[in-house]
Amino acid sequence: MTQLALFDLDHTLLPCDSDYEWGQFLARIGVVDSQYYAKQNERFYQDYKDGKLDIHEFLRFALKPLSEHSRAQLKEWHDQFMAEVITGQLRQKAVDLVKKHQDAGDLCCVVTATNSFVTRPIVESFGIEHLIATEPAIKGVGSDVIFTGEVKGIPNFREGKIQNVHTWLGEQNLDLSQLPRSYFYSDSMNDLPLLEQVSHPVATNPDDRLRQEAQKRNWPILELFA
Prior knowledge:
By secondary structure, the chain is an alpha/beta fold. Helix content is about 45%, strand content about 20%.
C-alpha cells in the first residue's frame, strides 16, 4: 500500500530560501529596484522566521515581477538563477534522503509556500515529480500566457498546506488518514499544522521554535546540513 513522503523545500532540502534568493537575484541583475527590493525582501524573510508573515502582502510583492515580463524572459532568468545560485546549494544528504523514499516506492512530493515558477525546476533537480506550491495566476493562451501577479487558489502556507495536500491526495484517489505511513520533513514552525497531520513528522534542520516543539513531542530531529 502507498506510503507518502512530503518535503518542505527551503531550509529543508535546500540550505537556503529559494524565494529570498530569487528576490536577491532579481535585484542583483537589475530587474527590480535593488535597494527597495532588498529591503522588503529582508523584512518579509524576517517576518516569516518570526512566524508573523502576512502571506497575502508578501505574495503581492513576490509575484509582481513575474507579471511584468514575458514567460520567455523569465525562463531565461530562471535558468541563470539555477546555474548561478541553486545548483551549488544541492546537498548530497538531501538528495540521498529523497532517493531513500523513492527506492522504497513511496509517493514523494514537495510542499512549499514558495511559488511554483521559482520551485518547479528546483524540485525536478531532486528527481521529484510532484509539487504542491503557491500557484501564480495566469491569463492568456498558448505562447501568450502571462502571469497576472495574483495567486490562484489557496496560498500554500501554514493551514493552506493541509487543504492543498488533501486536495492533491484526492486527485490521486488517496486519503491521508488511510495511508499506512506518511512523513513530512520540515525546518519551520510555520509548518506545525501539517506536521501534526502526518504519522511520522520529522523536524529537519529545525528553527529554534520547531526544535523545542520537536523535543517536547519526542519527534525525530534530522540535520542534513550540519
